[in-house]
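Hello K.,

You asked for the raw outputs rather than the summary table, so here they are, unedited. I folded two proteins back to back in the same session to keep the settings identical. This is the first:
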Amino acid sequence: MKQPTLLLGITGGISAYKLTDLASRLTKEGIRVLTVMTDSAQQFITPLTMETLTKQRCYTQLFDRQTPEEVTHIWLAQQADVVLVAPATANFLAKMTYGLADDLLSSVLLATTAPVLVSPAMNVHMYRNPATQQNLAALQQRGVQVIPPEEGLLACGETGEGRLPETETLYRWVKKALAPQDLAGKKILVTAGATREAVDPVRFLTNHSTGKMGYAVAQAAWQRGAEVTLVSGVTALNCPVGVNRIPVTSAADMMEAVQQHWQEQDAFVLSAAVADFTPEHPAGQKIKKEGQSQRTLSLAATQDILAWLGEHKKQGQRLCGFSMETEHLLENSRKKLERKKADMIAANSLTQPGAGFGVDTNCLTLIGPDWEEQLPLMSKEDCAGALLDKLLGDQS
């Protein structure tokens, strides 16, 4: 199997130092990172730094041939499975737009047939300048993917758009560019995290869910080309890159969000830990304990989101629910599959070491109407990929 190759083009911006972390992370994952640096980029970081982190030569000169038969910019262009230019300065974006080829990186970009990503990073007014915006629009029309800059405090002291995204964001865009886009054109709704049911303005009923499994599914689906809506309960996790997150608090909030977006979806993955019951009469003020040795809390059942979708889903829509059990895992999960009219249940046991809430691994059993598949203990990201394969690919 061919080793995937990223050609990383670094231009002269202060945020160039962030690319060291990205290059190191990708290299550790087995991705070959070939770095091309402009003269200006070398004012901020050195070729030696990139060579040390990537274990590959860093290229800086258009006419620096290692062998007589090697045409450096053509060879580099042919090696790339994806090209990322980051930080992409206003000057370099203008060069790309007008097809200049006056250095190694600009020549590589004219010669490559690989997907090209650019991550603009500059002063907010330079970014908003009509010339820069027109250049970005022109590049997008030619198929270049533009990674939006983040907002915040800039190196110049001003605040606004223009920050180079953090490593995680760039990493996910690269992974998407390298991944098969087999879910392109699909719309997938994912629920994740815990709901909170108010007892009074201070207290609430909830559970141990952190949302990690659902967030992994949302990220994996986006990386494979899907348009993802993530209805998220309370969690400390950052929004997955490229995903439309709808934050909710209670089970009723989650149901409302799902009902607003369900009709246009191709598939649903309901991994949220939704409360089965909610206080029937939440107190308007904090409940005091003085003078009370015990208190009874009256609970009412919440509306079942999985069952509602099972009743209402249209032909062709695929529905996957989750089942967390402490006993009789397969028996209880298969009953849930039939009762809720789902296409698949992802079952996991709270008693399984390395699975369940708050950890980065899971051990799922995928259950369909007449089949089941036991997955080994693996990362939640790998679990997400296997789940999507089964739900939207192999449906036997």
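The second followed immediately with the same parameters:
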Amino acid sequence: MSRTLAVIPARAGSKRVPGKNTRIFAGKPLVQWTLEFACAYQGFDEVLLSTDCEDSAVIASVCGKPVPWMRPPELAGDDAGTVDVVLHALSEYQARGQYFDRVAVLQPTTPFRRTDRWNEAYRLLELGVIAVVGASVACQHPYWTYWIGNMGAMSPCFPGKSTLRSQDLPAAATINGALYWIDVSVLRQARTLTPEGVHAVLLDDALESIDIDTEDDWVHAEQALLAAGVLK
């Protein structure tokens, strides 16, 4: 049986929404939504909150997953990439005699997840897919986007495609941070969560598409919860 490590990257620093991971969102700290899902999902063999934040570590302990080590400073800055954080986690576990075939990444800024989506991702991996990501339908099709040059001059990003009718457009999506799942060997070689050959699980639920990176995102997320009846 393949073993999966679930990594939740939650560093302390956030310039656009200070302290967002521990800030109360819909009745609980934002990061707790993701922790609770990861701890309950049966497809994960181990769950790690990778953090340099003591408050986040306390929340992990409350959820039953004490942080085994704090993230080192060199992986806690603005320049630290998620892949580096995940590879560090895998190395730390390997040093402790624990090995994993797959790794999942759950960004805490996307707090709502559905088990059936992860089950779909698992089935794809079992069929031989090397990596799966969650994706949402693109709000604006890339064929209809333009580069902006000097004095506002516009040029199509995809020449010859900008005049296509909507019914003639190929399906397009944007990656959603709610779901990443990849073979460890592929991650180590490609050093990306979205290597060539990655497949998508479409997340078409409005709550699943919530991604909180700015204060405006926070407000819009709360409005979405009100509309869905989650908040009263």
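The radius of gyration is 19 Å.

Happy to rerun anything if the numbers look odd on your end.

Regards,
P.
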